[in-house]
Specification:
- The chain is of the alpha+beta class.
- The protein has one domain.
- 17% of the residues lie in helices and 46% in strands.
- The chain contains 3 helices and 11 strands; from the N terminus they run ααββββββββαβββ.
- The protein has an 8-stranded antiparallel beta barrel.
- A hairpin with a 3-residue loop joins strand 9 and strand 10.
Length: 193
């Protein structure tokens, strides 16, 4: 994990190379599969800044999805994930919550939000974006439901995970989280708040 710690503390040429980060993430993911440690949604609550991502390369081989080259996000582009509880919903399995994904570039802010459900044993967080807000220099210029909005949000907790986007977390620390998305890419975030 020291490579990841360095990656969020250093800048420019002093940061570990993207290939080193990808290798570290894959090792952490493999190690995480061997442990049966249960985590709680409480550990994910707060605001997290996306720091590093990998794409995927679909292959025709039986191997399925191969990781593409990883990259750090440029400092001018700020991408945040914020998780909070949803006390209005109680689930038989898992924990209900809310997510807000925001992208900020030079005074422009795009915010997607919606429901989440977290399954501690699998470290899996399913989510759906049902609302879009667009701000320009702090002023809201659009806010409305998307992708079925309220109906989609009401049906979210009954839907199968196979039909939902999700992250499978393999690293949950006080200041760092890392996950593989449903599409196969890897990402890690550092805590902002």
């Amino acid at each position: 994990m020291s490579q990841l710690q360095l990656a969020v503390q250093e800048t420019g040429k002093s940061r570990p190379k993207p290939a080193e980060i990808v290798t570290a993430l894959v090792k952490l993911e493999k190690a995480g599969k061997k442990t049966k440690e249960t985590v709680s949604y409480q550990q994910l609550l707060g605001k997290w800044r996306l720091w590093f991502i990998t794409g995927t390369k679909k292959t025709r081989q039986r191997a399925g999805v191969m990781l593409g080259a990883g990259r750090y996000l440029p400092p001018a582009i700020k991408v945040y994930l914020s998780y909070s509880k949803n006390p209005e919903v109680t689930l038989a399995e898992g924990e209900a919550g809310k997510v807000e994904n925001s992208v900020s570039i030079a005074g422009f802010n795009l915010i997607l939000s919606g429901p989440t459900k977290f399954f501690p044993k699998q470290k899996l967080l399913a989510f759906d974006f049902t609302k879009l807000t667009i701000k320009l220099f702090g002023k809201t210029i659009y806010s409305g439901n998307i992708r079925g909005g309220k109906n989609s949000m009401e049906n979210f907790y009954q839907q199968s995970i196979k039909k939902q986007a999700f992250f499978r977390y393999f690293l949950i620390e006080d200041n760092l989280i890392a996950a593989r998305g449903k599409g196969g890419g890897l990402a890690f975030w550092r805590r902002e708040e």
